[in-house]
Specification:
Chain lengths: ~240, ~425, ~400
């Protein structure tokens, strides 16, 4: 599904070169739910941007669903994002001027799709996240958890093969975080591949597979050990 | 506190240099364009003799064609026939009054080295000089006796005196005008009323004439006239006398009537005179006689050019566009400051103080725009001077009043433009802003 | 393609959009009416005077000396000029087209005080007149030398022959100009004139007069003490002859003043100076206005792009191509401009109606309004192009940044 080999990403300014990723290799199979953890500045976001085709990389190979994305131009990458990838952002990134229906409609607008099909998909996606009766509301009228569910609906509407979630629960309280998390698990169980970036170790332990990024490299985390901390009383790892 | 606001405003202006420049430029261009055209219109419509414009009256008697008015809608002629002018000069009850016309002649200097030159003259009565009060450099005007006795006297303009006598006091000397010798009794100083209200028929922005002579000499010597002549009835009598007895109008007629009762008496006299003439078979139209004060006369004669007025209104609309522009820019600018405003609110600033802070910023932009605009207006007036030539040279001066007006207009404009964006910015809920920071 | 979402986004930011739309409406109103006034004046300036302007000059004389005898001096002067090499012909006249000063009278097809008259300009010329002015005789004949009579300033009689312009003939004879030839018309109620010739075109001296094409030529030489002489030259000889004629005349006799030696080109320029000046002012206004409005759009659009950076990044992340982002801003501007030009069309026609009432300006031709709309659409699109271009350079990675 996603195969990165020896990806290198260097940011250059006039004075310094920063190696955000060095020899970054990762293989994610179809249907997996992978959590990516790591401290701030470890390269998580860079990995996410590259995985989501939001940024190009300096060196290495990246096959997404069998497509070599290295030499794609901007338009081709846009199309690939649009069709294969669903994004969920930490700060939701809903468009404040548009109502829920129009927000979910955004990615569909960049495809050739007739209005009837769009309408069906939007309604179905909102139904999945349980907000179909709020279609005409604008984002500021919703709670944070509801907003994130709209964002998930938006990601699902295009039926992507693969979801990229960037700290999806980072701006939410634990109750809402839980509902979002179980929604994601539900989606994964229906066959969508999910990569979730988080710095919350507890969340990472909940997914079938977790990796850690440190200094631009990957380390696999093992899930053999059950968590010893009582989840109910635990404080977030990096509050 | 004020200096704190001024410093904040300056900081804020510096923070978005491009946007600030754009706003100042918009106001400047709008002020520049509108002040240029307002100045021209203001000069065209200005009162040329403020201290007595309510005492000087243009006299209109309607001796025109029974079938058509002189000008629609039923406007009496702007000039008078010789017969009527003479009758009024003889017996109309005015403190002072004068009939006058424009003439021209070649002046031959004594000095054989100076070539003869062509000049325009004003044939008028001695009262002219007390009525319109042109400033004298040397000597005086002539008396009513000089008028009655057909004395060959003249008053020269300063420019003519300079050409003929090198600017020396020429009172008592003789000048050869149109082949006749006239004795100089006075020399005027610089005199250029704008508009030239006493003869708008022959161009409200023309230069005054080069010399003045008694009106009665026109008939006596059958002098050539240079002004506008309008006739409605063919003149079948031979010779110059025939012309004088015709229904052609060619004489400007003014009276000085300082009091209300004098004005009423004068108008009554005109109506009475017209009725007498009707009995003699003249004045075929219904009574339509008027005395018009200087400003009424300017208005009636359309001294402020229609074209100039249209351009003025267009440029005021232009200023409006510039203001809309500024409003839009200020709105966006202040919207980027929502966070700062929310923070200040949270730290205890009242809406009033925030309003003051931002309105001061708007005013500063207005002052800057006004100053640049003043400069643009000056340039615009130079341009108009170059485009239209001599006749407008006295219309394109920025005086202190206009400069003051320009700055004031700029500040008022900027404040008007600033009110709505400022009001919107100050109504931001502090909590919302802080949360989404 | 995505008009409805753009409209609903706009409806949440009405003020900015309304401000731009109003600006565009006002700009359109001013520009279209100004262009129309400019074109109207240009149309007046483009009218041909009917005379050979390129090769003609005119001078004024006034006699002042005791021994100035106009009756002998005028023919002497004219003979002198006519024999100069390079001169086509010369004529004494009271006025000429474009000079702004002249003589007008009423002409009627019937005798009497109540007859309906047509106003016409009058030029007094001798048999050299047609040739010196360079006008084209369409029908009939020129004046013969023995028809030319001397005229004093206070003369009340009129010559018995006249040549009129085609337009005047047409106005007097119900559109049938050829019918005028040989007919008798009346001046000053009772004096008959036999129309002996019709010329194609010769303007009256006043360019603002609505009867500018109505002109009557009389066979008279004037004894007014001062007057004008019109000289027509071979092509390319005019400037040389302007100097030579003035010097030659003064050398022959210095008891009259020769002044204002002006080519017809100079006279035309002076005549239309106000027209030219007004057009320059209006053009300047149009240019400034266009620049200000365009800059305003650029400024507001740039800010709108800045404010929506995150949103643009998100759209890019969700699969929008650069062209989609570009199109969004162009379309948004198009919608705002459309609203502006629709309001503007109404205001434009309103202002024109005001001007028609107040200034006797002609009514706006219908095509000015759609043309103005198209121009403002273009201005809007050009102005928003830069900010839109900037918008589509925004990286999709912006979506994952938390600020």
């Amino acid at each position: 599904m996603l195969k990165m080999s020896n990806i290198k990403k260097v940011f250059r300014t006039e004075v310094v070169e920063t190696h955000a990723l060095r020899d970054f290799s990762l293989h994610v199979k179809e249907g997996e739910f992978v959590a990516v953890t790591g401290p701030s500045g470890s390269g998580k976001t860079t990995f996410l941007n590259i995985a989501g085709l939001l940024e190009t990389f300096t060196d290495g190979d990246y096959l997404l669903d069998g497509v070599d994305v290295r030499n794609l131009n901007d338009n081709q990458r846009s199309q690939l994002r649009n069709e294969k990838i669903g994004f969920i952002f930490q700060s939701f990134n809903l468009i404040p001027d548009l109502n829920l229906f129009d927000n979910v409609d955004v990615p569909l607008r960049y495809r050739t799709m007739n209005s009837k099909e769009r309408k069906e998909r939007i309604e179905h996606a909102l139904e999945t996240v349980g907000l179909v009766n709020r279609m005409k509301h604008i984002p500021s009228q919703l709670s944070g958890g509801q907003q994130q569910r709209v964002a998930i609906a938006r990601a699902l509407a295009g039926s992507p093969r693969f979801l990229l979630a960037d700290e999806p629960t980072g701006n939410l309280d634990s109750e809402m975080a839980e509902s979002v998390m179980s929604l994601l698990e539900d989606i994964n169980s229906k066959g969508t591949t999910i990569i979730m970036v988080t710095h919350d170790l507890k969340l990472a332990q909940r997914t079938p597979r977790a990796i850690a990024v440190k200094d631009g490299r990957v380390t696999e985390l093992s899930h053999v050990v059950e968590p010893v901390i009582d989840i109910a009383t635990a404080k977030p790892a990096m509050a | 506190m004020l200096s704190y606001y001024l410093r904040l405003a300056l900081l804020s202006i510096k923070r978005n240099p491009i946007l600030s420049t754009l706003m100042v430029a918009a106001i400047a261009v709008g002020i520049g364009a509108s002040m240029t055209t307002i100045t021209v219109n203001y000069a065209m419509g200005s009162d040329p003799v403020p201290h007595k414009s309510d005492e000087l009256f243009a006299v209109q008697v309607d001796s025109w064609d029974p079938n058509n008015p002189f000008r629609e809608p039923n406007i009496a002629p702007d000039q008078m026939t010789y017969m009527d002018a003479m009758a009024l000069m003889k017996s109309a009850p005015a403190k002072r009054q004068t009939a006058m016309t424009k003439t021209f002649a070649v002046i031959e200097p004594e000095d054989r080295d100076v070539r003869p030159f062509e000049t325009t003259g004003r044939a008028t009565y001695g009262d002219f000089f007390q009525m319109f009060e042109p400033p004298f450099l040397y000597g005086n005007g002539w008396s009513r006796e000089s008028d009655d006795n057909l004395e060959m006297v003249t008053v020269l303009s300063r420019e003519t005196n300079e050409k003929l006598f090198g600017g020396d006091n020429s009172v008592g000397k003789f000048v050869r005008i149109g082949g006749r010798n006239y004795k100089v009794v006075g020399v005027l100083d610089h005199y250029r009323p704008v508009p030239k209200y006493y003869d708008v028929t022959n161009g409200p922005f023309r230069d005054p004439e080069d010399y003045y002579i008694p009106f009665n000499l026109v008939a006596a010597f059958e002098l050539s006239r240079a002004g506008n002549t309008n006739c409605w009835k063919p003149n079948n009598e031979e010779g110059f006398q025939g012309f004088l007895n015709s229904e052609c109008v060619w004489i400007q007629f003014w009276a000085e009537l300082p009091t209300k009762s004098e004005q009423e008496d004068y108008l009554a006299f005109l109506n009475n005179y017209a009725n007498q003439q009707k009995e003699l078979g003249r004045f075929p139209r219904p009574l339509n006689n008027h005395i018009q004060s200087v400003m009424q006369w300017m208005e009636l004669q359309g001294v402020v050019d229609d074209g100039a007025q249209v351009v003025m209104w267009l440029s005021i609309m232009f200023l409006l566009v510039c203001l809309l522009n500024t409003i839009g820019l200020l709105l966006t600018k202040f919207s980027t400051k929502a966070g700062e405003i929310g923070l200040r609110r949270a730290l205890g600033a009242s809406k009033r103080t925030l309003f003051l802070q931002h309105i001061i910023e708007s005013a500063m932009i207005g002052v800057a725009g006004g100053c640049v605009g003043l400069f643009l207006a000056w340039g615009g007036l130079q341009g108009i001077g170059a485009l239209f030539g001599n006749e407008v040279q006295h219309l394109v001066r920025l005086d202190v009043t206009m400069m003051f007006t320009a700055i004031l207009l700029a500040i008022v404009s900027a404040l008007l433009a600033g009110i709505y964006p400022t009001w919107r910015a100050c109504n931001i809920q502090p909590a919302v802003q802080l949360k989404t920071q | 393609m995505q008009i409805r979402p753009i409209l609903s986004a706009l409806s949440r930011n009405k003020t900015g959009a309304i401000l731009i739309a109003l600006q565009i409406a006002l700009t359109m109103t001013i520009i279209v009416n100004s262009v129309f006034m400019i074109q109207d004046r240009r149309g007046q300036m483009d009218r041909a005077s009917g005379i050979d302007e390129a090769n003609t000059f005119i001078y004024s004389y006034s006699g002042f000396a005791e021994d100035f005898n106009e009756k002998t001096q005028i023919p002497e002067d004219l003979n002198y000029i006519r024999q100069l090499p390079g001169v086509v012909d010369a004529v004494q006249t009271n006025s000429a087209p474009l000079t702004g000063g002249g003589w007008s009278m009423g002409l009627a097809t019937e005798q009497g005080a109540d007859a309906d008259g047509v106003g016409t300009a009058i030029y007094f010329v001798d048999s050299h007149g047609l040739d010196a002015f360079g006008v084209n005789l369409l029908a009939g004949r020129n004046f013969t030398p023995d028809e030319v009579i001397w005229r004093e300033r206070s003369e009340t009689k009129w010559p018995g022959q006249g040549i009129i312009t085609k337009e005047l003939a047409s106005d007097m004879f119900d559109g049938d100009w050829q019918a005028a030839l040989g007919k008798t018309v009346f001046i000053a109620e009772t004096h008959p004139i036999n129309i002996v010739g019709i010329v194609e075109k010769m303007q009256a001296p006043w360019n603002g007069w609505n009867g500018i094409e109505r002109t009557l030529l009389f066979p008279s030489q004037l004894l007014f003490g001062s007057g004008r002489v019109m000289v027509r030259t071979e092509p390319g000889e005019r400037d040389r002859l302007m100097r030579e004629v003035e010097e030659g005349l003064v050398a022959n006799y210095d008891g009259r003043l020769i002044r204002r030696v002006q080519s017809m080109e100079e006279i035309r320029e002076n005549s239309y100076r106000n027209h030219n000046g007004m057009n320059t002012i209006l053009t300047t206004l149009i240019v400034c206005l266009t620049v200000i409005t365009a800059l305003g759009i650029v400024g507001l659009a740039s800010f709108s792009v800045n404010r929506r950076k995150k949103q643009i990044g998100t759209r890019r992340a969700l699969g929008a191509r650069k062209i989609d982002i570009m199109r969004y801003f162009m379309l948004e501007n198009f919608l705002i401009t459309s609203f502006g030009v629709i309001v503007g069309a109404g205001m434009t026609i309103g202002l024109n109606m005001l001007l028609v009432n107040a200034l006797d300006l002609p009514k706006l031709d219908w095509y000015y309004v759609p043309a103005g709309m198209v121009v403002l659409w273009l201005i809007g699109q050009l102005a928003v192009y830069g900010p839109a271009k900037k918008a589509c350079q925004i990286s999709p990675a912006l979506a994952t940044r938390s600020v």
